[in-house]
Amino acid sequence: MDGGMYAMNGKMIRLALVGKDVEKSHSARIHTFLLNHFGYGCEYESVSVAKEDFDSVIAYLLGDFDGFNVTIPYKRDVMAYLDEVSGDAFDCGSVNTVLTSTRQGFNTDGAGFLLMLRLAGIEVNGKKVLVLGGGGSGRSTAAALKRAGASVSVYQRRREKLKELCNELGVTAADDPEAGGYDILVNCTGVGMHDSEGISPVSARAFIGASHAIDLIYRPAVSEFLRLASEAGLSTLNGKAMLFYQAYYADCIYLGRETDDTEAMGLYEMFLGETL
């Protein structure tokens, strides 16, 4: 990922995270850690916003911040406010990183997700993968998995939106998320955190025949989805490492740095050592 043309001047960077409910997010700690390591100060604000206030909040972020990150449920909504959508964000129709100086949107979720899988020793090439959820996270995850050689099916309840997603990404629509027969299941719905903590988007039946279950949720560390998968004998993985890696890729965009996966992995180990 070459962000050289997007470099900013100065040693203090003002960033934010915008989403529906981001009060418990680890993003501020991660970005501050990374930017301090790169020699920059970081002011990082977590902004929880209701749908009706999104327009005014985005105007505030675009005007007063160097960049900002976007999470559930606004990764597609934010695109209407940008002048350009680049790279993976253009391919999957989902933005998680905004550079305000150029009003450009990027997506680092897919790269972070694939790096997390490689580190965990989870091979997706040639595997049948079910992605639960067709929002911004589901889109970026499905696109990344397809790029890595997986046979990808996506399920979401709104069938008209699912058909549109599958046509855009070239993946398959799953009619029944509990039909079984998949090698890997990935929860990208957000069900299992905040007000839905303790709830899984699928029952134990969905895990029949599978070997891995991955939940992008990282708080709680073991969601109900992962608990059921573990009981069914699957190996499980939450999204904590992905959160770190997508933040690393985003900060490289903000700073105009070349990315290096070995560097990212080393920094994650350092981060874990400091936060244990």
Brief write-up:
The protein is of the alpha/beta class.
- The order of strands across the largest sheet is 2-1-3-5-6-4
The number of distinct β-strands equals 12
Tell me, rounded to a whole number, the average pLDDT: 93
Q: From N to C, what is the helix and strand string?
A: EHEHEEHEEHEHEHEEEHEHH
The level of helicity is: 25-40%
Individual helix count:
9
Residue stretches low in confidence (pLDDT < 50, at least 5 long) are 1-7
Class by helix and strand content?
alpha/beta
Inertia-based shape = globular
Distance between the first and last residues' Cα:
30 Å
Which strand-content bin applies to the residues?
15-25%
Radius of gyration: 18 Å
**How is the main sheet built?**
6 strands, mixed
Overview of the structural elements:
This protein is of the alpha/beta class. It is 37% helix and 19% strand. The protein contains nine helices and twelve strands. It has a six-stranded mixed sheet, sandwiched between helices. Strands 9-8-7-10-11-12 form a six-stranded parallel sheet, with helices on both faces. Strand 11, helix 7 (224-231) and strand 12 form a beta-alpha-beta unit. Helix 4 crosses helix 5 (136-147) and helix 4 packs across helix 8 (240-255). The protein is globular and about 50 Å long. The protein starts with 11 loop residues before the first strand and ends with a helix. 47% of the residues are buried.
